[in-house]
Amino acid sequence: MLNSKKIKFLNVLFSHELFKNSFDWATLILRIIPSFYMFYYHGLKKISSTGSWEWLGKAAMSLVGIDFGFVFFGFLAALSEGVLVWLVLFGIFTRISSFFIILTMFFASAYHLSDGESAESAIIYMTIYLVVFILGPGRYSLDEKLFLRKQNESKKLNEVIL
Q: Counting Cβ atoms within 10 Å, is residue 120 exposed (0-12), middle (13-18) or buried (19+)?
């Protein structure tokens, strides 16, 4: 039989009161942890090794029949994994950065699958950044602080004018 203390504990545990602002905390965690790991394990070596950009671009673009601009496409992949992840981590230009990371992970997963390898990590990253793209950066982001504040100020100014 449950006593009143156990019932209170269970009510708190399963209520929305336990994690106030949980949506914003969850989006913050979803931005920070995967972005750090993508940079550390994938982006750092790609962004610092310009010699690999041609191979990287050729590996992905040849899958879709593109046979030019391999250095450029390799640079874009390195940029996504080495720089844009930092923008997502800090929550600045989050959706556009996530979009490019999603594209990069799509091509990375296609490359690995066509090679008969596991595309698991690329698909997991693609899914994470798709969720970030859909949800947006959340309250604890630079996007929120810089851009939403400006929108709110212009709404207030419009209300005063009208």
A: exposed
